Amino acid sequence: MRRMLMLAAAAALAGLVGGTPEALAQKVIKYTHFQPGRADQPKHAAAEAFRKHVEEKSGGKLKVQIYPAGQLGNATSVLEGLRLGSIELAVVHDGGISSVYKPIDVFMMPYLFRDSQVAWAVWDGPFTKEFGEDMLKRTGIRLMAFADNGIRHFTNSKRPIKTPADLKGLKIRVQPSPVYIKLVESLGASTSAIDWGELPAALAQGTVDGQENGVTNILAASLYQHQKHATLDGHVYSLHAYLFSDAFWQTLTDQEKKIVAEGVDIAKDIHRRMTAEQDNAAKSILESKGMQVTTLTPAERDAFRDVAQPPVRAFLEQEFGKERVTRLVEAVEAAQRKTN
Q1: Do 213 and 191 touch, CB atoms closer than 8 A?
Q2: With a threshold of 0.90, does the pTM exceed it?
Q3: CA-CA-CA-CA torsion for 70, 71, 73, 78, nearest 10 degrees?
């Protein structure tokens, strides 16, 4: 009887201080992203794979809590959480990152990558490694990997777009990023910077005529309900960054860091594959949703690049230096040679 009372008292004390010694030693990784919490969403499927790997390989010492659909706030607040250490891991789109680290905009140069293989080679290469080191130094946020946010295309409710001239007179939603504003305006359209969460309502109400996004995001927010036309011009290989709080990273053992890095690699590969599959099937997917899809010949796509790339490149060189932009272009050219 006395032993039972002692065990009960110990259990009560453990409850008061937050759990068993094993539970107290457990490190929690709060992991947030901005897609719906469904298995058909690349970000969420990747997050679940990360959780499985990390919890199993750490023997439960690392616990992963997933918060999909922006449950921990918008991109700006999530990035601040990473800096402060109140959020451990987040997958954030390129436009959101520019609020704390503007050089991310260089990756938004239009018509930069020939295909996903070239983009991945650059994202996994030395240019991006050095880029991540600079980001860590300046923000306290550790860049773990890049994955796809979908190849971005134009959609609108008014007419087919076959040439840059067809964009004139249209009002296009862009994410709140100067480089996207420069890109769309260089093609002759007017722009309206609208946050992602407000986009479906803006399209439904006719606040804007169109928008530009990858197939994954068009499906995730059901944007096809308010857009009749899509043009598969592929102007930007948009990215999602796997970002880790360096404040939390420094609390991990070397083995735990290895497990987390492996988990990110697994998640990145799933994320890339699922998004690329949707990008490659963009025409059939969007047509199945009732959209009229315009595809471009290489020459027609070149016409868009010739209009949009020079002014955006000049803007990026002015903002971040000619050397950085040139080195990115050289990295792309090197990756193209290797993947030919």
Answers
A1: no
A2: no
A3: -80
Q: How far is it, in rounded angstroms, from Cα 232 to Cα 293?
A: 7
DSSP 138-172: HHSEEEEEEEEEEEEEEEESS----SGGGGTT-EE
Rounded CA separation 80/258 (Å): 25
The token pair at 17 is: 């201080």
Q: How many CB atoms lie within 10 A of CB 265?
A: 16
Judge whether 94 and 107 are in contact, CB under 8 Å: yes
Q: 220 near 35, Cβ under 8 Å?
A: yes
Q: Is a pLDDT exceeding 60 seen at residue 298?
A: yes
Q: Please state, in angstroms and as integers, the Cα–Cα distance from residue 260 to each residue in 83, 226, 233, following that order.
A: 18, 40, 36
Rounded CA-CA distance 297/44 in Å is 34
Query: What are the backbone angles phi and psi of residue 142, rounded to the nearest 5°?
Result: -95, 120
Tell me, what amino acid is at 137?
K
Using the 8-state DSSP alphabet, how is residue 38 labeled? Answer: S
- pLDDT per residue as tens digits for the range 44-68: 999 999 999 999 999 999 999 999 9
Residue in the structure block whose two tokens are 């040679």:
337
Q: Contact, 181 vs 174, CB < 8 A?
A: yes
Strands 141-156 and 229-245: antiparallel
Q: Which two tokens stand for residue 7?
A: 């065990």
CA 15 to chain centre: 39
Those residues with Cβ within 8 angstroms of residue 161's Cβ, 6 or more apart along the chain or in another chain: 154, 167, 229, 231, 233, 294
Which of 161, 332, 136 has the alpha carbon at shortest distance from 237? 332
Q: Both tokens of residue 115?
A: 């295909």
What would the pLDDT profile of 19-48 be if each residue is shown by its tens digit?
Answer: 455 555 799 999 999 999 999 999 999 999
